[in-house]
Specification:
Layout lengths: L14 H14 L7 H5 L5 H12 L10 H14 L8 H5 L7 H26 L21 H4 L1 H18 L13 H11 L9 H13 L22 H4 L3
This protein binds a DNA duplex through helix 3 and helix 6.
GO cellular component, one term: nucleus
Keywords: Activator, DNA-binding, Nucleus, Repeat, Transcription, Transcription regulation
Subcellular location: Nucleus
DNA sequence: AAGAGAGACAACCGCCTCAAG
DNA sequence: ACTTGAGGCGGTTGTCTCTCT
């Protein structure tokens, strides 16, 4: 790790260290990770503290095996956001799975899904020679200067977001029953899809138009076996039913 | 019972981006 | 314009546990 001070403790965390870190974050809040080791009285580097908190100690972290719907979502989002040209955005995917961390998702993908899915994707690639390249520009976390104009006009920005969300609600049919936690995560995903419109697919012009159509219809349209044959686009996705056989 | 191999997951590493100076 | 340091990311490794022979 770059900048790791000499003599800093490494390896598995002890219960005592966990308690110190938890106490420190509860008192001072998240962030300012460079101060955390000192404030908590830990002989660990800032990155180690941050990782331990985010992946293990943070409240509401869901442990245990992944559910079928979670696996389904991981596969779909990995197709959408990640491919061999760019890094898959595990944090973005994890953001759609309440209680799951990016590390969890990444580990699950590497140990459970990668070996099973990659061969299928390779077959699909051979079937679709027209798909030359998929380019995704994933959003990265940003911190903004206080002087940014659009931050100053907060009211306008919020109004725009509300208008956009209402539009998506109108466009999107009810796709899944509400979850127990009351969070309509599919709905949120549509909103994010709109935000991430930079996700472009360098396919030919006719398919590009279809992509935009599908984008507004929602992610469930992608790979839906009922529209197989409508365009070559569908061929690159594994049929939803195949997922249950994993 | 014991050793080998596979699987699962926690943790580390190196890199990138950005704000601040 | 350049440098520095913090925050954050994905890739990789280390270690523990389980299963099989």
């Amino acid at each position: 790790m770059e900048g790791v001070p000499l003599g800093v403790r490494k390896g598995a965390w002890t219960e005592e260290e966990d308690n110190l870190l938890k106490k420190c974050i509860e008192t001072n809040g998240e962030g300012k990770w460079h101060q955390v080791p000192f404030k908590a009285g830990l002989n660990r580097c800032r990155k180690s503290c941050r990782l331990r908190w985010l992946n293990y100690l943070r409240p509401n972290i869901k442990r245990g095996s992944f559910g079928v719907d979670e696996v389904d979502l991981i596969v779909r989002l990995h197709k959408l956001l990640g491919n061999r040209q760019v890094r898959p955005s595990w944090s973005l995917i994890a953001g759609r799975l309440p209680g799951r961390t990016a590390n969890d998702v990444k580990n699950y993908w590497n140990t459970h899904l990668q070996k099973k899915l990659i061969p299928q994707i390779e077959v699909v690639k051979v079937k679709t020679p027209r798909m030359m390249e998929t380019k995704a520009i994933r959003p990265r976390p940003r911190t903004f200067s206080k002087n940014l104009i659009w931050l100053k006009s907060k009211t306008t920005a919020i109004a725009n977001i509300e208008t956009r969300n209402n539009l998506f609600k109108q466009l999107s049919p009810p796709l899944s029953p509400p979850r127990d936690d009351g969070i309509s995560w599919w709905e949120n995903m549509f909103v994010d899809l709109e935000i991430n419109k930079e996700i472009t697919l360098s396919i030919d012009g006719s398919n590009e138009e279809k992509w935009h159509e599908k984008e507004t219809q929602g992610i469930l349209a992608i790979g839906d076996s009922s529209v197989q044959g409508e365009s070559d686009w569908n061929d690159i996705f594994i049929d939803k039913m195949d997922l249950w056989d994993l």
